[in-house]
Structure formats: C-alpha cells, structure tokens
Design a protein that fits this description.
Length: 325
C-alpha cells in the first residue's frame, strides 16, 4: 500500500507531538526557610543575609518563608529590607508570632504587602496555595490560634477545583502529625478536616492532585507521607525552643539582657534553610544543611529522649516520590 508524502509527514507530526507531550517534564526550584524569630535571635540579620546571599547564588524560581519572621516594628525594618532585596518573586506565610506585641493580623498582612493571609499563586505550571492557621475557633478566642476556619476552607475548596497541575500547599502550623506527639494529634486543631478536603480532592482530580504540604512552627526536621501526600516540616532557621525548665545562658550576659527569650532555646550555630526542587517526573528533592548547637545540646539539659529523632540542628537531604496517576 502506498502513502502520499503529505500523509506520511502528517502521521509523523502527530507521532512527534504525542511523544513530546508525554515526555514534557516541568520543574521548579524554591528557596525555603522558616521561623527566623527576629525578636528572639540576636544575630538574625546575619542569618537572613546568609539566606539571601545563598539564594542569589542558587537562583530559585522564588523564595518563601513559612512564618514567625517578625513583627512590623521600626527596629526590624532592616531585616525585612534584606528579605526584599532578593530580585525574584518572594512570599510570606503568616505565623502565630507575627501577631506578637499587640500586632493585628491585618497589620501583619499589610506590612508584608500581602492581599490576604491566605492566597494562591502559580509558577512554572505549578499551582501553590498558602494557608493561614491562625483563625479563631470561636469569636472571643484569645491567645495563639491553631485553626483554619470555614470561610478559608470554603475558599480552599474552590481554589483546588480551579488548580491545574501538581498542587503544593504552604502553611505555618502543620497539617500533618505533630512530631512532639507522633500519631496522637496534629499541629492545627482541625487538621483531620483539612486533610479530608485534600484527599477527597485527590480522588477526583488525579492530574491536579496535591503532592506536598510544607510547614514550619514546631522547629523540627520531619517528613511523612500520608495517603499519597507528603507533609514536610522545615526546621527553624535559628533554634529549637526548649522552655524555661531548660534555661541556659549561651552567649553572654549582655546578649541575654537584650534578647530575653534566647536562654530558653537551643540555638543553631549556622542558619538552616533549604532549596526544594519539584518535578512532574514524580519527585521532590530537598537540599540538606547541617549545623551544631551553641552551648549544650537539649539532651545535655535533660530534654526528652523520645524527641531526639526529630530535634536536631539540621535539615535532612531528602528525595520524596509522588504519583499523578
């Protein structure tokens, strides 16, 4: 059987396009840090500068900090300026300590030039959703919150329906297991409700499924996969909070006087942060970073041994696989 040259070329073109579309792989690179805690960490300027300098070399597609950065006081303006010096896109997540010192949520959001405390954006064909775990569970609730309210969750469901591509979630408080009590409770009070939304979405939208949720808050080095979704806790840039029963002056009396909370922490000698590469080929790669404690380790001070697995001055290098099928 003979075919005309035009038909052969047409068949070849269809074959090429079909194969090319199957082989098309999208990747994105993200610079990520969490829990800088400007009011607590005396050398915060050096830490943020180190992060931005490193990102200027790594050239990620964007950078994001996962909350507890600082409050909008004049003395912290230089630190926010360092963050804003990154030439590419940059994003914030609202942590619980963003509202310290009487700062309102609205003030914290406005200072960062955010349109809302929860929002969505896309880059390189990947949809990203930033959530806010600081909603009130009931109207007159005081103190720190760890909850995602009905209005936000309704918005989340609508945003997921319109998402195209593998979805990545950012929050401050975790939606996965709290490593302080593995298997017992979650970082936000209604995490099970939120995870049900995630999993129901994934059942109905395999090509646009949620693949990973990144959070800070607990200052742990931790990752787990639950029903096809990775929940990853990014360690603090600065320290592990221990509490007043583990009080220890680690720098000097002068530093302790100016930074009154630092003696209740186990500071990391070097700032911790990571670069995360995500590929539609089905993997998430996290760069690792190791440091050491300034002064005695938590274990030398009698910190609970069962937490040793997650409490460490490092971010572990990881390769995590996911499926879009």
């Amino acid at each position: 059987m003979k075919y005309s040259l035009s038909i052969i070329l047409l068949i070849s073109l269809f074959f090429f396009v079909d194969c090319s579309s199957k082989k098309e792989v999208k990747t994105i690179k993200i610079g990520m840090c969490s829990d800088v805690h400007l009011p607590t960490m005396y050398d915060a300027e050096k830490r943020i500068t180190t992060f931005i300098d490193s990102m200027n070399m790594a050239k990620p597609d964007f950078i994001i900090e996962l909350g507890d950065f600082g409050i909008p006081e004049k003395k912290y303006e230089p630190y926010f300026s360092i963050w804003n010096s990154f030439p590419g896109p940059k994003y914030h997540v609202i942590g619980n300590h963003e509202m310290d010192g009487g700062t309102s949520l609205e003030e914290a959001v406005a200072y960062r030039e955010m349109n809302n405390s929860y929002y969505a954006f896309s880059q390189n064909g990947f949809p990203f959703i930033v959530l806010d775990g600081n909603n009130k569970k009931f109207p007159d609730q005081k103190g720190y919150k760890s909850f995602m309210g009905k209005e936000q969750l309704s918005w989340l469901q609508k945003e997921l329906i319109s998402a195209e591509g593998p979805v990545v979630i950012f929050s401050h408080q975790g939606i996965g297991t709290d490593p302080n009590n593995p298997g017992e409770r979650y970082s936000i009070e209604n995490a099970e409700e939120v995870r049900n939304i995630f999993e129901n979405h994934n059942k109905a939208n395999k090509a646009n499924r949620i693949i990973a949720c990144f959070n800070g808050h607990t200052h742990h080095d931790f990752a787990e996969e639950v029903n096809g979704i990775w929940y990853i806790t990014i360690n603090s840039m600065a320290y592990k909070w221990l509490g007043d029963e583990y009080e220890h002056i680690r720098y000097s009396e002068e530093v302790d006087k100016d930074f009154k909370w630092i003696k209740f922490t186990a500071p990391y000698k070097d700032p911790l942060f990571t670069v995360v590469e995500i590929s539609t080929a089905g993997f998430i790669k996290m760069s690792g970073k190791n440091s050491s404690y300034v002064g005695p380790s938590p274990w030398e001070l009698g910190y609970p041994e069962h937490l040793r697995k997650f409490v460490r001055p490092q971010i572990t290098e990881r390769v995590m696989e996911f499926s879009m099928e």
